[in-house]
């Protein structure tokens, strides 16, 4: 499987975090996790002979012309979105508007910069297609970059 | 989103629409064993040229719904600038999501995973009332709508009559 990603992802990923010096200490750790995740997604995009039929089916429908650099950037960015455990205390969001299922206590949820919350697996699948909050259409990457620049 | 989750979400919507029908259309499945293929009957919206018509359409959901949009096709003949002659509906909210860096202002017009059968049909019904002249799917209908509205009206009226005969 291609290693071409690793070089490009490292420089691109860090370029998203300009102005944030604190990130360097945890850089290696993050990078390892990132590489792992890129590989996971690569497997989806470029299934090898070991891929299951369901993964091949998934691959057929993924966005075309999605190049590796863009993919790595995107995953890097998504990793900086906070997540947490749903504790049932939120009065506002009771259900994930993507799958229309109610949040259960202890489920992992992701917070977008606009503070809308979704199941991690629901929103991550969507962000791989479009970096926009499905509820308010706030662009996720621009919002993130702005917050990094101002802090 | 697995196929199981997609079908659960669609089943939920079908149950909800059966329980609390929405004005302007009725919805069901083409084949009751296939939750991914729906048949809807749209009532021509009042105070429009389509008033009085009953237009049947099919919705084909991908297994990745709601991450990807369904396709919609009118089965009843219909004359409209944004509906192809073969019935395919061309409406921006059914266009695949993308991340055009410079196109954020248009994100709201494209597919979003929060769209349901109900919100799709509400958009389609409003499109019937208010055609979008900018990107016509049926160029002849669009040209007629702009330049010879009387002919356009006559063609739509014929579709409305035909739809009533097919439904009775």
Automatic annotation (TrEMBL), chain A:
GO terms for cellular component: ubiquitin ligase complex. Residues 96-136 form the RING-type domain. This is RING finger protein 11. The lineage of its organism: Eukaryota, Metazoa, Ecdysozoa, Arthropoda, Hexapoda. The gene is LOC108072161. GO terms for molecular function: ubiquitin protein ligase activity; zinc ion binding. SMART domains: RING. It holds the Pfam family zf-RING_2. One of its GO terms (biological process) is ubiquitin-dependent protein catabolic process. Keywords: Metal-binding, Zinc, Zinc-finger. It comes from Drosophila kikkawai. PANTHER family: GEO07743P1. It comes from the Eukaryota. The keyword Zinc applies.
Automatic annotation (TrEMBL), chain B:
InterPro entries: Ub_conjugating_enzyme, UBC, UBQ-conjugating_AS, UBQ-conjugating_enzyme/RWD. Pfam families: UQ_con. The active site is at residue 90. One of its GO terms (biological process) is protein polyubiquitination. Its EC number is 2.3.2.23. Residues 5-165 form the UBC core domain. GO terms for molecular function: ATP binding; ubiquitin conjugating enzyme activity; ubiquitin-protein transferase activity. The keyword tRNA processing does not apply. The keyword ATP-binding applies. Keywords: Acyltransferase, ATP-binding, Nucleotide-binding, Transferase, Ubl conjugation pathway. Accepts ubiquitin from the E1 complex and catalyzes its covalent attachment to other proteins. In vitro catalyzes 'Lys-48'-, as well as 'Lys-63'-linked polyubiquitination. May be involved in degradation of muscle-specific proteins. Mediates polyubiquitination of CYP3A4. Belongs to the ubiquitin-conjugating enzyme family. This is E2 ubiquitin-conjugating enzyme. It comes from Drosophila melanogaster.
């Amino acid at each position: 499987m291609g290693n071409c990603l690793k070089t490009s992802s490292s420089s691109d990923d860090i370029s998203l975090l300009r102005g944030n010096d604190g990130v360097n200490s945890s850089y290696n750790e993050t990078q390892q996790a990132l590489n792992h995740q890129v590989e996971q997604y690569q497997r989806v995009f470029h299934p090898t002979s070991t891929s299951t039929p369901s993964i091949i089916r998934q691959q057929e429908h993924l966005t075309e012309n999605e190049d590796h650099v863009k993919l790595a950037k995107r995953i890097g960015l998504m990793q900086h979105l906070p997540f947490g455990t749903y504790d049932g205390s939120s009065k506002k969001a009771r259900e994930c508007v993507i799958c229309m299922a109610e949040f259960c206590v202890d489920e992992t949820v992701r917070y977008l910069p606009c503070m809308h919350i979704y199941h991690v697996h629901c929103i991550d699948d969507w962000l791989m297609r479009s970096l926009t909050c499905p509820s308010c259409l706030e662009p996720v990457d621009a919002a993130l970059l702005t917050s990094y620049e101002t802090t | 989103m697995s196929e199981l989750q997609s079908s659960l979400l669609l089943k939920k919507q079908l149950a909800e629409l059966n329980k609390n029908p929405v004005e302007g259309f009725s919805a069901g499945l083409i084949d009751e064993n296939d939750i991914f293929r729906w048949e809807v009957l749209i009532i021509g919206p009042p105070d429009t040229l389509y008033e009085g018509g009953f237009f049947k359409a099919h919705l084909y959901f991908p297994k990745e719904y709601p991450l990807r949009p369904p396709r919609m096709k009118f089965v009843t003949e219909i004359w409209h600038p944004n509906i192809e002659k073969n019935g395919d509906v061309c409406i921006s909210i059914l266009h695949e999501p993308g991340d055009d860096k410079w196109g954020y202002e248009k994100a709201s017009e494209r597919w979003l995973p929060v769209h349901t059968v109900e919100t799709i049909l509400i958009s389609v019904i409003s499109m019937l009332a208010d055609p979008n002249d900018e990107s016509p799917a049926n160029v002849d209908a669009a040209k007629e709508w702009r330049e010879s509205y009387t002919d356009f009206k006559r063609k739509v009226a014929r579709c409305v009559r035909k739809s009533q005969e097919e439904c009775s």
